[in-house]
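Same chain as my last thread, 186 residues:
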Amino acid sequence: MSKTKFKPIVIGVNTSIQSEYKRLLEAKRSDLKDLKAYASRFVEIESFDILFKDFSQTFRDRFAAKFESQFPSLVNQSKQLEMVDCDIAKIDSLAAAIQSNYIALNEDLEPTEKTDFNIYTKDDKQNLLYETLERICDDYSTLKSQGLTIFPMAICNGTQQALKYDFSTQSLTPNISVFSPNWGKY
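reply #2:
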């Protein structure tokens, strides 16, 4: 008897993590655009690349280089920033928000890595269970299309809620909660 290599099956999408990722992605893009727009008023920003790593210090260094001849040496940098009406706290805050956001972006503000939000089966036993539940759903659809009246709640209850009825499509679907480690403990 030959052992087949386990191949996970996609059983759903983790929409809560996907939504959080999209929210963080948009927040980072917005912060980068805001930081570039604001900092460009005082120093030259060639591309978004410069904003990705410790921009607070980079800004201070570039500011000092640009304005060194315009202020006497006795005026410290915080006074210089104040004189040109630069809110360094805003720059520091945006730079910190960008640094704390874990999503890596390229200079076109696109993620550098593809993120997978799918939920997968974990072993052959779960694969078999999922395929069986799918087969029951397909059989239900076939019987329904042939005019046989079957009450879906009877099937859902008969499978201990391993199947659920989707009212929008009027069909049975596997309940992915079955694949959770806590299934049946309550």
